[in-house]
Amino acid sequence: MTSSLQSDLKTHQALSLPRRPRRLRRNAALRKMVQEAHLHVEDLIYPLFVTEGENTRVEVPSMPGSYRYTLDLLLAEVKEAAQLGIRAIALFPALPEAKKDATGTESYNPNGLVQRTIRAIKETVPDVVVITDVALDPFSDQGHDGIVSETGEILNDETVEVLVKMAVSQAAAGADMVAPSDMMDGRIGAIREGLDNAGYTNVGILAYSAKYASAYYGPFRDALDSAPKFGDKKTYQMDAANSREALTEIELDIQEGADMVMVKPALAYLDVIQLVRQNTNLPVAAYNVSGEYAMIKAAAEKGWIDEDKIVMETLTSMKRAGADLILTYFAKQVAQFLAK
Ligand code: PBG
């Protein structure tokens, strides 16, 4: 301390402040005592990409540290995640073009990639909650979440019929929850009815209720080779400018039988997470999507940000906004960080 600063400090008079918020920030113990939002390993859902073949994992170029796994290596990854305390995974298939068609018939093949993967996970790590994606895009030769008409329209009711078959076949393979990510109208009710009629009354539905048409999904579409072959997804996914509409979607999904609802993406939609949290008593999930992951990874690779700290701050902001659960490609990294 310079001597001039010391003499300045000697003459100082304490301000008479009854409220000094800094008192509660004085040391780490006090800060922990007043911490409001907490990120726990139990909050995490780990999305994983599975592909055909053996003993291979291929890194997704726009998602460093994320891979498409063949089933054998995927099982090892799920085991490792479980050992770190992660309780749930969300499964996405990457199919060869030859398996794709106009109506996504491969999606309800009882021996399809997803169905075989669910069975294998349930045999090897039965306690891990398996959540499966219900949407046509990985199975569609058009890369859309629905069936495309001759005029290029995404057909709603025809698509819902396929989604029901897909969800039932995933439940038959052992999925704990199905997660419709397609944004067709009425799919939650139809899937609930389909599951119940097939005897799967205990298989839950995690509804991608407020899913926005977002450029943040770019890296995910690289991962699955599932980018739409024409146009965009704006006739079914929501407009980024809207939040009241999110409440309409949530309300419908709840009426139709959703067990949990989701807001996706997460980071640019924290206000929507908060709004949804305030308008339902159901668990709310937030999807920290591929583009959010890619941005952090890219900046960290350049040495411009501290990756672990940015990840913790970002995911904690989702908890603060009101998310109960977070789907994140950072799941293992966060679990490791929290265990330190
Ligand atoms: C498609 C689906 C998408 C994601 C999950 N399911 C992409 C899309 O709607 O085009 C995105 C996930 C991510 O970006 O991490 N049904």
UniProtKB/TrEMBL annotation:
GO terms for biological process: protoporphyrinogen IX biosynthetic process. NCBIfam families: PRK09283.1 (NF006762). InterPro entries: ALAD, ALAD_AS, Aldolase_TIM. One of its GO terms (cellular component) is cytosol. One of its GO terms (molecular function) is zinc ion binding. Catalyzes an early step in the biosynthesis of tetrapyrroles. Binds two molecules of 5-aminolevulinate per subunit, each at a distinct site, and catalyzes their condensation to form porphobilinogen. Homooctamer. Mg(2+) binds at E249. Its EC number is 4.2.1.24. This is Delta-aminolevulinic acid dehydratase. Pfam families: ALAD. It is an enzyme of class 4 (lyase). It comes from Euhalothece natronophila Z-M001.
